[in-house]
Design goal:
CATH architecture: 3-Layer(aba) Sandwich
Protein name: Class I SAM-dependent methyltransferase
CATH superfamily: Vaccinia Virus protein VP39
Oligomer: single chain
InterPro entries: Methyltransf_11, SAM-dependent_MTases_sf
GO molecular function: 2-polyprenyl-6-hydroxyphenol methylase activity; 3-demethylubiquinol 3-O-methyltransferase activity
CATH topology: Rossmann fold
Keywords: Methyltransferase, Transferase
Strand content: 15-25%
EC number: 2.1.1.222, 2.1.1.64
Order of helices and strands: HHEHEHEEHEHHEHE
Length: about 260
């Protein structure tokens, strides 16, 4: 399940969601295996800082776990945590040297157009009321050729396929902010949207990005006996627990 907080003010228009995401009991930490795989993808895309220091925005940084995991693999680059939740930012400041409060809509992020080289967008999109506006804003702040590293739970994860066949609500999906109903698990994290691999590729491409690659990652909430299988299935991203998408803003023509 995602553990990120949303950065869109579409949630702020609904007091129930605002209160939900400012509740300190709502988890804001990122899963370790997913964060590490995503960090490796980003380090490979950016290269060493000897070729020029880059600015990386972790949008929806939560408690800063994803950026802190990436930092050792990105020495010399500048990591900035961005979140809408004040509570999440308080926790992120214990891990990150740079944090900024920002929203993806209603005035946009507090960054200049084409000012970032990369964006980490880790398990945020499934929380958003308006993901279209969010990707428009991310595209704005990215330089031409800039990288988007997006992760989100997979609606078509291998166990969800079996659960649906049995008439059980899929893992990661939620029908209430007050409790879990009709599916395994006990923790409510506020998922509003879910994607399959195909849907995610098509959505991000329609938002003006070039798809570079899609990889899978395991989910820390899988029961221990099934974890070896969950890691094995990552080789087939369309059935993996977590989708890791690397996209980029198209380079300027002639570049």
């Amino acid at each position: 399940m995602s553990t990120k907080t949303p950065t869109t003010t579409a949630t702020a228009d609904r007091p129930g969601l605002r209160d939900f995401y400012e509740d300190p009991a709502v988890p804001v930490a990122s899963g370790g295996p997913r964060s590490l795989r995503q960090a490796r993808m980003l380090a490979e895309a950016l290269g060493p800082a000897a070729h020029g220091a880059r600015t990386i925005l972790d949008i929806g940084c939560g408690d800063g776990t994803a950026a802190a995991t990436a930092a050792p693999l990105l020495p010399g680059h500048r990591l900035v945590g961005v979140d809408w939740s004040q509570d999440a930012l308080r926790r992120a400041r214990t891990r990150l040297p740079h944090t900024v409060r920002g929203e993806l809509t209603d005035g946009g992020l507090p960054f200049r157009t084409e000012s970032a080289d990369a964006v980490l967008f880790s398990e945020v999109i499934e929380h958003l009321v308006d993901p279209d506006a969010a990707l428009d804003e991310i595209r704005r702040v990215l330089r031409p050729g800039g990288h988007l590293m997006l992760s989100t739970p997979n609606l078509a994860a291998w166990y969800n396929r079996a659960l649906l066949l049995a008439g059980v609500q899929p893992v990661f999906s939620e029908v209430s902010l007050r409790g879990i109903h009709g599916r395994p698990g006990t923790e409510v994290v506020g998922h509003l949207r879910l994607y399959t691999a195909r849907a995610l590729r098509e959505f991000v491409a329609a938002s003006g990005f070039e798809i570079v690659r899609l990889r899978g990652a395991p989910f820390h909430g899988v029961p221990r006996p099934a974890r070896p299988l969950d890691r094995l299935v990552c080789a087939a991203p369309s059935a993996a627990s977590i989708l890791l998408l690397h996209a980029r803003r198209p380079p300027a023509q002639g570049a």
